[in-house]
Every structure is written in structure tokens, then in C-alpha cells.
Design a protein that fits this description.
The protein is mainly beta and 132 residues long. It has one helix at residues 2-17, and strands at residues 39-54, 57-76, 79-92, 98-115, 120-130. Helices cover 12% and strands 60% of the residues. It is globular, with a radius of gyration of 17 Å.
């Protein structure tokens, strides 16, 4: 029980210290869905439209598209890891800034730490890199 409590505290602390991101990558369920040794392949798409402030400048309607191929592997029954490869772009409405589609990639892991009859609890960690 102490290990589970420590994991929850670490995750909540990390979330509290995390800033906002310009382009949000697809996240999905925070629980593992693969059994030991299973593979999964899929396609992911994400569209975001956000208002943000950057070094004192207010930017309205910054949009981004991300398209990924995703490959996952079940490390253990309650733990999986994945990698994604694809492309992403970003556009700002006033026409001063526009990024063509560029290479994007990421990796992540999902862990299920508590299974209940109607609800499973888990954690998702992922990182995504892109260059416009």
C-alpha cells in the first residue's frame, strides 16, 4: 500500500509542476491494455486550438495538427510501453507564423495500479518532440 501511495503522490506532484503545452499530443486511457508480450499498432490524430501568452505577447487561436503511427508492447500484464512516429504542424491566425509539417516522435508508458469491479486506476507518462 505504501508503494501505491508514493506513486500517487509522485504523479500528483509532477502534474502540479507541469506547465501548459502548445500542441497537445493524443493521450488515451491511463491504464495498460496489453498483456505480457502483446503488440499493438495504430494511428493517432490530434487537433488543438489554444490561446496562449508567450513572453508578454498574447496569441489567439494557435492551431496544431499531429498525425502518428503508434506501436505498443506489453512489458507485464499491468504495464505497457509505446513509441510513436509521425508529423505535426502549427499555425497562428494572423499569418505571421506558420509551420509546415515536420517530423514528430514520442514515447510513453502506461501502468494499471489498481483494478476494481467498475473502475481501473492507472498512470500515463508520455513525451513528444516535434520540429516545425
Amino acid at each position: 500500500m505504501n508503494k501505491k501511495l508514493l506513486l500517487v503522490v509522485v504523479i500528483l506532484t509532477a502534474l502540479a509542476l507541469t506547465g501548459s503545452a502548445l500542441a497537445l499530443a493524443p493521450m488515451g486511457s491511463p491504464t495498460a491494455g496489453l498483456k505480457t508480450g502483446q503488440f499493438r499498432a495504430g494511428v493517432e490524430y490530434s487537433y488543438s486550438d489554444v490561446d496562449m501568452e508567450l513572453e508578454g505577447y498574447k496569441l489567439d487561436s494557435v492551431t496544431s495538427n499531429m498525425i502518428f503511427g503508434n506501436l505498443g508492447y506489453g512489458i507485464m500484464d499491468e504495464w505497457e510501453a509505446f513509441v510513436r512516429l509521425g508529423v505535426a504542424n502549427v499555425d497562428y491566425d494572423d499569418g505571421d507564423f506558420s509551420g509546415d509539417y515536420g517530423f514528430a516522435w514520442g514515447l510513453g508508458t502506461k501502468v494499471t495500479f489498481l483494478k476494481q469491479e467498475n473502475l481501473d486506476w492507472g498512470a500515463l507518462f508520455q513525451m513528444t518532440w516535434t520540429k516545425f
